[in-house]
Design a protein that fits this description.
Length: 354
């Protein structure tokens, strides 16, 4: 072998080794973590570790995110003393010495004008801005103008602010829920228990040792997507909420099955968590799942998954050809109509054209 040929031979070996080394960079193993310079042989594919129909996993602790809807119920919402009576406060009023047919022993709401309506017999008594003791004395004094011997007991049944706390609350784009006059509190990225603690901490500014119950009423932030190629008619993307139990078969059932533009070629594209590692691509054997009752590729869907349904290539080619020929068909049709009309004019005259 000449020196020239030997040089070419060594250069070829170096190039081949460089190409082989370059091919080992990045995501080389199917579903394996991204390792630019692996010191050990790449791990085996992770298909065996992927949850599926008969081997499902429980999703991680749910983290609240916009636009989830929270249900908050007040367990203990007592204003700090001394509480000034506000509009729409609920007061429990009990009076002794009233007329038997017109007793005062019930819960009353402070109306928008700041008064309590005791009916036509006793009238309205304004209490807004008073403490519980002051309002009790005022009601007793006003009733004494009608009754000879009367005594009154007054207590706060529910503050108006509690009505703003209890109910459904949307987690806004800023990650906060609005608690009315008690302000807003940040809950995004928290568990239910952490959100409950955050709400109670916010309420402590105006309430005495508040206690609330928090739960997720609508799980709106965790979804998966079903992408259906349209074979030349445009792709269709459906955004579906995830409950933690859906499989590929469930997802296809929710969209009404495979369309006439689709094939049985499906796969799941699973994003890498927080950009760490490789994105996973899980091929789905649709006919095995349906006709063969196989669960091997009926994978459990995770938040953020894209279930991709490939298009029918024959239908796409047919549509492309039809779109390409449509302008010519229009021209040929126009020419044919013009020629036919001209022949009629020549043969029958203008009066019998149509």
């Amino acid at each position: 072998m000449t020196r020239y040929n030997l040089g070419i031979f060594h250069a070829g070996r170096i190039f081949g080794l460089a190409a082989l080394w370059g091919s080992t960079l990045g995501c080389t193993a199917f579903l394996a973590p991204r390792e630019p310079f692996p010191a050990t042989p790449p791990p085996p594919p992770l298909e065996s570790n992927v949850p599926r129909e008969l081997d499902k996993v429980t999703l991680p602790r749910y983290m609240i995110e916009p636009p989830d809807i929270l249900l908050i119920e007040g367990v203990k919402l007592v204003p700090k003393s001394p509480h000034k009576i506000e509009t729409f406060d609920a007061l429990l009023v009990r009076a002794i010495g009233t007329y038997d047919e017109f007793p005062i022993d019930d819960a009353y709401t402070v109306d928008a004008d700041g008064s309590i309506n005791f009916g036509p017999t006793y009238g309205r008594i304004s209490v807004v801005g008073e403490t519980i003791g002051e309002a009790e004395d005022k009601i007793r004094s006003e009733l004494s103008k009608i009754l000879s011997q009367v005594d009154v007991s007054l207590s706060l049944l529910q503050g108006a602010g509690a009505q703003q706390v209890t109910g459904q609350h949307l987690v806004g784009p800023d990650g906060r829920v609005n608690l009315g006059t008690y302000g807003s509190v940040f809950v995004a990225g928290m568990t239910i228990e952490a959100a409950q603690a955050a709400v109670e901490e916010q309420l402590k500014e105006k309430l005495e040792d508040p206690q609330v119950f928090v739960d997720v009423l609508a799980y709106n932030s965790k979804v998966y997507y079903v992408v259906t190629q349209g074979a030349g008619f445009g792709d269709e993307v459906r955004r579906l909420p995830i409950t933690g139990n859906e499989t590929v078969l469930d997802a296809v059932a929710l969209i009404g099955g495979l369309s006439r533009f689709s094939t049985t070629k499906l796969w799941i594209a699973r994003p890498a968590p927080n950009g760490v590692g490789c994105e996973q691509v899980l091929p789905v054997q649709w006919e095995d799942i349906t006709g063969g009752a196989s669960t091997a590729t009926n994978y459990q869907l995770m938040p953020g998954d894209r279930l991709f349904i490939a298009e029918n290539k024959i239908t796409k080619v047919s549509e492309v050809v039809a779109n390409a020929l449509r302008p010519f068909e229009t021209v040929v049709g126009f020419v044919s109509l013009t020629t036919s009309t001209a022949n009629r004019i020549v043969r029958f005259g203008l009066g019998n054209t149509f």
